[in-house]
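Structure tokens please, single chain.
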Amino acid sequence: MAPPVLGLDIGGTKLAVGMVGEDGRVDRLLIEPTRREEGARRVLERLFAMGREVVDAAGLGAPTAVGISCGGPLDATTGVLLNPPHLPGWIDVPVVAMAAEVFDVPVFLENDATAAALGEYMFGAGTGTSTLVYLTVSTGVGGGAVIDGRLHRGAAGNGGELGHITVRPEGRSCTCGRRGCLEAYCSGTQIARRAEEAVDVAVRTGRPTTLADVPAMTAADVSRAAAAGDQVAREVWDETTALLGQGVTDLVNVFEPDVVVLGGGVTRAGSMLLDPVREIVRHQAMGPAARAARVVLAGLGDAVGVVGAGAVALDALREQDHCGALVPATSYPA
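Here you go.
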């Protein structure tokens, strides 16, 4: 078996690092807070130090490559983080060049949700399929797709922004600047915000709800209250699953995938989220697509960021072996 690759995942709240083998298993997973207020250079210095620590602790020798997963927008070809909203002030950061200087091996950069899609395809809930659509329902809603065994990147390298399909025209404002996007309703942030608004109305009209006693609302609070029979919470949750189901139905009709994989923190609600989404897809998607597509929960859990980053590096190395040349993501900027 070839030596593993090193996976580096850069999130807005946490950094995660691990050695990823050819079978997708993670060795020496290490997680620390991002502390993004320190700025790009300091955070990346800590990230690379974590990487060196993991490599040393694993005792498997130097990695064959490094994969980096981070939210976009980014330029995977030049290895530059352009201006990720979850990392304020990180403008035109040449993360691939910086990592290549530290680790002295090929380095590959990919959007985090796109990388997660590849990770689930290679090692998680999409193993053995040909076409997969992945949605991460978390602080925001991201996504990615593998089509006929090839990762979809798009003409500019940032394809797969599935959280920004419209589910309610002229609806709530979204972080992308448009209105009515899936993310504007179904992200953990917006589920909590919609619940707070519903509680304000309930309090004014004298309608009882246990959510009125929650000090800092989260999507998990809403799903728990809905499961316990709180009617206000139930209405918020039902709207969430209805719109998520509508969005997944659109994706099923467009891609006709073997599987739609749902990941991210909001999916910890389990069957309470999955079952109604499945039913909506079954009844609303085009017949052949509805019969072909399974809708399942992600299989990689909290390690998905690191496994996804590792999968990007492994996939690029395989492409290199096949083509006899490095893929464009290893063109390090000066």
